[in-house]
Amino acid sequence: MAARREMVLNAFTMNCVGHINHGLWTHPRDRSADYTSLDHWTALARTLERGLFDAAFIADVSGVYDVYGGGIGVTAREAVQLPVNEPTLLVPAMAAVTRHLGFGVTVNIAGEHPYTFARRMATLDHLTGGRVGWNIVTGYLDSAARAVGRDGLDGHDTRYDRADDCLDLLYKLWEDSWDDDAVRRDRTARVYADPAKIRAIHHEGPFFRSAGVALSAPSPQRTPVLFQAGSSGRGQLFAARHAECVFISAPDRAAARRAARGLREAAAAAGRDPSGLKVIMGLTVVAGETASAARDRLADYVRHASPEAGLAHFGAGSGIDLAPYGLDEPISTAPSNAIRSTTEAAQRRGATKRQLLAELALGGRYPLAVGTGAEVAAEMEGWMDEGEVDGFNLTRTVEPECWEDFVALVVPALQERGIHKTSYREGTFRRKLFGRGDRLPAGHAGRRSGA
């Protein structure tokens, strides 16, 4: 079969027990509770690189899910992203046992000052040889704001205004403070770095101020690959200016196509090449040697899953406490300060608690592909062709077997269809993803920052 457009393939995970498909930690074969062990993460990295995954996409939250039932009862009992450990500390260990695997790391800008954050990401980019991406999040949990002494979250659009200002400052630090040839390492002349080629940046923005020299010398990519997951109107504008990869959640192919087209049109309107934006959707896969075996495995997983834990997760994302609702009572979707696209989607389809619980049979709400390797590969190809997405964030179910099954059963079928690589491209994460240079492309806001 002739080569086709290759998909972006990420493992969607988190430094915690329960991430998306909740309750599966109770399955006797699940090892997600080993998340505090480095061996757990290095084994995952090796498996993903064997399957030629582009990246481990590591999610994070900086608050707790305390909307459902007005507290953390279900959240704590079912480990709904609690406890959760810091994501960036996993990267050096996982990078040390791999050569090509990239890392999309989630960090909320609300808890960071760009000056020190710029150094942390540059350090990771150095240590990994340019294999780091940053998933930019603006926060959606009031609990996170209260935990650091604030009354609550800023307004939805204000959070994106703050993120714009943060990125403008980060671009100056990553792209402008040091010239490419500032580091000389000249022992004879006793010049490690040429001071004439290093400059302080000056930033006076609506949210951040900074005057100083970037602490890190330029890393292989300078700016990490930029991921973003906002799909509200304001989030889409932010993505059009900054994002290189946008993560979407779509219930069907038509919705995915609308989202993908909207994002690419917004990028073009912002003066960017739409091909410089990858649209990646969330997908859960349950694969088996036969179709019957895959269905049996899914039924086994469902017996251990917790739909109610899924409601606790939904409540945090929507800002709606579903605990007091009757099964068929229409869910109120008045504007909230949480994830706007979540409430808008629920409102469009008139969701009820009964419908949500049915959708959450596996504990999470991403589309599900079940079958043999060939059947799953066909389903993924259909999402790419009809949904016009560029790839997938695969959610975990029972691990590590979900990753091992995918590598053994689905990857060969994807390769037969010509939509998954048979070897890695050399170079940085950005070069691997886009087949171009290591740096942000011309036309991107980060290449126009100015010191």
Automatic annotation (TrEMBL):
Protein name, per record: LLM class flavin-dependent oxidoreductase
Assigned keywords, A-Z: Flavoprotein, FMN, Monooxygenase, Oxidoreductase
SUPFAM superfamilies per record: Bacterial luciferase-like
Binding residues annotated for FMN, in chain numbering: D60, T106, H156, Y160, S231, S232
Organism: Lichenibacterium minor
Entry keyword annotation includes Metal-binding: no
Domain Luciferase-like: 31-383
InterPro entries for this protein: Diverse_substr_monoxygenases, Luciferase-like_dom, Luciferase-like_sf, NTA_MOA
